[in-house]
Amino acid sequence: MDSRDILEQLLAFDTVSARPNIELMGYVRDLLADAGIVATLIPDPSGGKANLYASVGPEGAGVMLSGHTDVVPVEGQAWTVPPFAMTEKDGRIYGRGAADMKGFVACAIAAMVAASKRELRVPLHLALSYDEEIGCMGVGSLIEMLKAAPMRPRLCIVGEPTGMQVATGHKGKVALRAVCTGREGHSALAPMALNALHLAVDFVNAVRVLQADVAANGLRDGDYDVPYSTLHVGKLNGGVQVNIVPNTAVVDFEIRSLAGEDVLGLIERLREAAEAIVAPLRADFPEAAIGIERLWDYPGLGTPSEAAAVNFVKSLTGANGTIKVAFGTEGGLFDARLGIPTVICGPGSMAQGHKPDEYVSAEQLAKCEAMMAALISRLEAGF
Question: Which domains does the chain show, CATH number per domain?
């Protein structure tokens, strides 16, 4: 079974992050078992989701191929092809997750099967995770397993879509929530109440002011499309109906940071701005508050461009240079928590990810297959 056949099967599984992925992982486990490869499933507490880890070849450090199996939702998107089925036309393979990142996962699984038929001198490992799309939340149990292992992989290739370019870095991210507390009242007497939505809007403006300062005066890295750290408000909730002054509003926002950015300092500046908004109001509304809480985070990735892992992957693809990507990956966690040098390289473009009629081109898939073939040959030769 080649990578395209495997991709067809993977696309048929609806593995949106809110849903289980255990059936997909069972399919992968059984496919590897047919090739004589033992895969370990690491289930979540519900048993509905799992990570998977498998190795082929001799015991040792070797190379780890990493990918996530969850995808983003399709609701509200105008698809012209079935999202959870493979449609191939005009040199493109369509389906949710084709680019992000079941195309790479299919190539990695096929590579494991192919490697099982070769006399490897260096092992090949496969790491598949869940809930990457909601903040790399699922990979933690896989990391804990690798922490306890007697030997960790020598390097990792995360196959997020880079157009098969070799990426050495991405920004870190912290997701935050600001809870704004006012005082409810009848809208006919609105000036006698404290509108929590108004507090939220003032806080959003403070985020925008800080973003403008960071963009103008903060750290810069020209390897990124957006060369500075970013602050982004993604969600604002509050209110029940129009004739009630809301007493609570919630703002969800994020910071995506360059390496070396003082993220705690940025959060503290927002706390100070929040206090400046509510402090003048407390004489009349003692309950006035804007509290900021940290929801989750993952570290950035910054593998040196001259690192051995980078040069090795460049030798597989024929790349001359490197890039950095705007989106986050589990690679930062492998690097920070396990010390595994990590590179990002996979088929497709994130410009096609998360959109209706998501696709990966057949040409990109073929380039990934060629990288895998070169990798197996190097592992057979001793790296």
Answer: 3-170+300-381 (3.40.630.10), 172-298 (3.30.70.360)
